[in-house]
């Protein structure tokens, strides 16, 4: 149901995507709006509209522009009503096709979207070029905090060396009036610049009254002067015109939308005051009339080509060689001090490349933020062969941390990165600083891996990525173990899974509950029947576990997938199950996030079992360290001609697939095994496989272990 809203502010019609003003129809349940033309249009009109939209289908419907934090949507302007929008770059009225952010009121002509320079040589700060970036600082022109201004979601121009910043609007201001009363050129501040919130902020430095209307300002000196206090005479003569010129309010000559000064023949702002000849409609800038000795063809500073990033990088390098303090707010908000030796700072990583710190670097003494010396000299802009059509700009932080995935290596990055804002193409420092030929070959397993898929535990699409950061801790949403290595990640909500957890079956049979099938689901209460620890609470996202619907028992995922090898010894009446390194990682997470006092203790020595592998009996709820269980260190087994030695783990090669040579089934590379030292790498077996075919054990068991064996037989 659509309701008539009556007179309204300017809005965007959600059907034709035109900006309109006046009456409209709105949905009472959602922000859907229609202008009157679309609301009463016939079916033929809608067909024609669709044809026009198809003709514009070659244009990008949305674009992520480098100067605005939100995506910009393609619109078609409809000039209906008295409210007009202007392009935020050229300040001219919107016409035809343009891009915009409706929520912020930020719009750009289509032809202006690629004209906004990323670096700017500005007369307010002639010593260094200004770079376009998202900063949280004060604008030096209007003295307003940029993040709280109307341009809070738009990039600003800043000098990283001097911490000089101009917001998007103030960057278009230029000093134009050279007056004998001041050694700097003065900048005209017109009504389009003035923010109503700051109306009472500026005070005239001459008469001490508030600057409520237009005034002149010196940004370098923070000097403000009314036009009458400069003074700007109400009547003036100019050698290029025979009639007297009168200081007048802003004048719009016609409706063409193009206004020029008749002295310098450059475009003028129709909202600025001018000198005007009443007899022959001669119109001129104030500064062109008063600056009699200045040439009218003075170059506009904003039109000079931006300094190259290579030159700027060289400038930074030269500066850093002569100074021990580095000030680059884009990198870090505090000054960084050069340090020759960083090894004594402990195990710390560089904030840019996320690699361990070594050699000289820069350190923030307040918060111990550290950069390698080379990382502190990274250029602000590069041209990379993987994306030759545009430059890539350097960023220290991301506005969307859940989307920090390098488009080359698919690594999840948390350090600095290079970004093309127009194409949303991202490279981490590793890929940005090496040639494409150095990236290495793709293995067969990597080429066969799916880059995106859907999983039954999540409603959104999951994308493949590598999680290799040494400091950032992320947990798999299924098994709750720490993420490291190949993963699948949801760009929408941050859901993340181990690559191995994707292969977890929805239903499985386990030897310790062979009578029924276990189903993967989430449970909010109860305990694990294997380790006796509580299930993860449901408020901790969704707690997935394996459970038996018939018996009502539940198991942690780490327990259900790890406890697949039962061991039967003469020393105990029930089967014992091996808890290895996977459970130890799970137990460490459990103590950190669930219960700091949780513990599993050895029933023989009384010491805690965490930190090492152990065996557990599910019937008696008792645990044994491997040494307390008196497993023989060396055995002679029927499955191999040589004696076998007990080892805590054995990794054969880099194939990621390891097998028991007795049963020929897969084994965990980090679990205890029996290993033949006489033929290295030829024979490796599960503990239960080797002991089940044991010929002689007792003569190879150390004397102190025999005492423990006699004790365990009495259990």
UniProtKB/TrEMBL annotation:
The keyword Membrane does not apply. GO terms for molecular function: zinc ion binding. Residues 70-118, 128-185, 334-381, 388-439, 460-507, 594-639 form the Phorbol-ester/DAG-type domain. It comes from the Eukaryota. Keywords: Metal-binding, Repeat, Zinc, Zinc-finger. InterPro entries: C1-like_sf (IPR046349), DC1 (IPR004146), PKC_DAG/PE (IPR002219), Vacuole_Formation_Reg (IPR053192), Znf_PHD (IPR001965). Residues 86-143, 203-265, 349-410, 601-664 form the Zinc finger PHD-type domain. This is Phorbol-ester/DAG-type domain-containing protein.
């Amino acid at each position: 149901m659509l309701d008539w809203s009556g007179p309204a502010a300017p809005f965007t019609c959600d059907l034709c995507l035109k900006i309109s003003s006046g009456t409209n129809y709105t949905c009472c349940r959602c922000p859907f709006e229609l202008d009157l033309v679309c609301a009463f249009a016939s079916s033929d009109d809608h067909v024609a509209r669709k044809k026009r939209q198809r003709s514009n289908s070659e244009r990008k419907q949305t674009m992520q522009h480098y100067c605005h934090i939100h995506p910009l949507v393609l619109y078609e302007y409809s000039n209906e009503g008295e409210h007009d929008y202007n392009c935020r770059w050229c300040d001219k009225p919107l016409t035809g096709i343009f891009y915009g952010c409706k929520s912020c009121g930020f719009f750009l002509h289509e032809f202006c979207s690629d004209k906004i320079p990323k670096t700017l040589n500005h007369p307010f700060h002639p010593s260094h070029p200004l770079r376009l970036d998202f900063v949280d600082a004060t604008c030096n022109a209007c003295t307003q905090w940029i993040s709280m201004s109307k341009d809070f979601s738009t990039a600003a121009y800043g000098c990283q060396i001097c911490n000089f910043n101009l917001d998007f609007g103030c960057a278009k201001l230029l000093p134009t009036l050279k007056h004998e009363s001041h050694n700097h050129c003065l900048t005209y501040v017109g009504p389009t610049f003035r923010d109503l919130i700051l109306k009472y902020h500026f005070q005239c430095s001459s008469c001490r009254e508030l600057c409520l209307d237009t005034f002149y300002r010196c940004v370098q000196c923070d000097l403000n002067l009314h036009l009458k206090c400069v003074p700007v005479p109400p009547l003036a003569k100019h050698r290029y015109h025979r009639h007297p010129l009168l200081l007048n309010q802003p004048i719009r000559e016609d409706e063409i939308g193009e206004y020029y000064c008749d002295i310098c023949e450059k475009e003028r702002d129709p909202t600025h005051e001018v000198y005007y000849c009443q007899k022959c409609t001669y119109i001129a800038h104030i500064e062109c009339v008063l600056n009699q000795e200045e040439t009218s063809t003075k170059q506009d500073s904003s039109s000079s080509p931006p300094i190259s990033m290579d030159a700027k990088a060289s400038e930074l390098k030269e500066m850093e060689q002569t100074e021990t303090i580095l000030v680059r707010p884009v990198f870090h908000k505090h000054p960084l001090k050069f340090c020759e030796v960083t090894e004594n700072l402990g195990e710390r990583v560089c904030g840019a490349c996320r690699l361990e710190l070594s050699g000289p670097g820069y350190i923030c003494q307040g918060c111990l933020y550290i950069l390698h010396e080379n990382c502190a000299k990274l250029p602000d802009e590069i041209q990379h062969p993987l994306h030759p059509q545009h430059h890539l700009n350097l960023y220290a932080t991301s506005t969307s941390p859940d989307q920090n995935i390098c488009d080359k290596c698919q690594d999840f990055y948390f350090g600095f990165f290079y970004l093309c804002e127009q194409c949303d193409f991202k490279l981490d420092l590793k890929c940005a600083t090496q040639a494409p030929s150095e990236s290495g070959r793709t293995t067969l397993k990597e080429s066969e891996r799916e880059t995106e898929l859907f999983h039954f535990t999540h409603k959104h699409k999951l994308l493949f990525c590598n999680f290799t950061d040494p400091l950032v801790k992320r947990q798999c949403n299924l098994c709750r173990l720490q993420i490291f290595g190949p993963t699948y990640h949801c760009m929408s909500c941050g859901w993340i899974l181990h690559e191995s957890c994707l292969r977890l079956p929805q239903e499985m049979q386990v030897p310790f509950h062979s009578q029924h099938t276990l189903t993967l689901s989430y449970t909010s209460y109860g305990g694990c029947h294997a380790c006796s620890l509580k299930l993860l609470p449901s408020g901790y996202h969704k707690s997935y576990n394996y459970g038996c619907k018939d018996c009502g028992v539940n198991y942690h995922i780490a327990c259900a997938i790890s406890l697949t090898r039962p061991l039967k010894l003469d020393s105990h009446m029930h089967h014992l199950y091996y808890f290895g390194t996977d459970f130890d990682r799970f137990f460490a997470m459990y103590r950190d996030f669930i219960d700091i006092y949780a513990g599993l203790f050895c029933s023989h020595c009384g010491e805690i079992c965490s930190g090492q592998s152990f065996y557990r009996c599910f019937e008696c709820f008792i645990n044994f360290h491997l040494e307390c269980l008196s497993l023989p260190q060396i055995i002679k087994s029927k499955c191999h001609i040589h004696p076998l030695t007990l080892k805590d783990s054995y990794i054969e090669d880099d194939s990621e697939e390891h097998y028991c040579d007795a049963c020929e089934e897969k084994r965990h590379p980090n679990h205890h095994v029996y290993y033949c030292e006489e033929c290295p790498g030829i024979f490796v077996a599960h503990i239960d496989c080797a002991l089940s075919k044991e010929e002689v054990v007792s003569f190879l068991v150390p004397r102190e272990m025999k005492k423990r064996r006699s004790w365990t037989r009495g259990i």
